Amino acid sequence: MLLQIIHTSIDVAMDYMRL
């Protein structure tokens, strides 16, 4: 689903921001 992809993108973005 598109919503799941967006949710995963946000999760990855949050992890990237921590770095």
Quickly describe the structure:
The protein has one helix at residues 2-18. By secondary structure, it is mainly alpha-helical.
Distance between the termini: 28 Å
Count of discrete alpha- or pi-helical segments spanning 4 or more residues: 1
Give me the oligomer status: single chain
* Class of secondary structure makeup: mainly alpha
Q: How would you sum up the global shape?
A: rod-shaped
What series of H and E elements makes up the topology? H
Relative strand content:
under 5%
- Low-pLDDT runs of 5+ residues are none
Please give the number of β-strands: 0
What is the percent of helical residues?
A: over 70%
Mean pLDDT: 94
**Sheet with most strands:** none
Radius of gyration: 9 Å
Description of the structure:
The protein is an all-alpha fold and 19 residues long. It has one helix and no strands. The protein is rod-shaped.
